[in-house]
Specification:
Number of domains: 1
Distance between the termini: 25 Å
CATH topology: Four Helix Bundle (Hemerythrin (Met), subunit A)
Helix content: over 70%
Radius of gyration: 19 Å
């Protein structure tokens, strides 16, 4: 990739998608899900509506994919062929990249399916026209706890990733 234009476009995609991903993950984990949990059935309705109407999990996944793919291309372009020479920028940025990939994998294979199942349970409760059964309440609470735990893990991973990206060039 010798073209400065391609590098600039990749950097824009990487930074904008990454900022959206980190901000969305942190907002969801530290503000939205704790509020959903604290407000009980109303919170569950809110979470279901949020997932159904905005497709937030899909948007966050797409942002994560764009950030990771553009980041891999940039990393390859900047650091391919460099030999290990102590704690250099490529190491710090590489650690951040690995954490981002881990977060993306957790998001795709754990958080997203959990959010989808939670949405389905909410739809079922809404469609039946009566209060949720004890089984539905237990499943909804279990899904919310799982989603909250993995959202916290993902948020921490992407915040550390962003930190690595911000300080990486100063390593060494």
């Amino acid at each position: 990739m010798d073209s400065p234009t391609v590098i600039i476009i990749l950097r824009i995609i990487h930074i904008v998608a990454g900022a959206f991903w980190v901000g969305g993950a942190a907002t969801t984990a530290f503000f939205l899900l704790p509020t959903v949990k604290a407000t009980g059935p109303v919170g569950g309705q809110f979470a279901g509506a949020l997932i159904q109407r905005t497709h937030l999990p899909e948007w966050l996944t797409a942002a994560g994919v764009l950030a990771v793919l553009s980041g891999l291309l940039l990393y390859w372009d900047f650091y391919a062929g460099l030999a290990w020479d102590g704690f250099q920028p490529q190491v710090v940025i590489g650690i951040g990249g690995l954490l981002a990939i881990l977060s993306l994998v957790l998001g795709i294979f754990v958080s997203r399916p959990t959010a989808s199942r939670m949405s389905a349970v909410g739809k079922a409760i809404q469609a039946q026209g009566s209060p949720p059964t004890p089984t539905q309440i237990a499943e909804r609470d279990s899904l919310l706890a799982r989603l909250t735990n993995f959202a916290m893990i993902n948020a921490v991973l992407v915040v550390i990733t962003a930190t690595c990206m911000a300080i990486g060039r100063y390593a060494g």
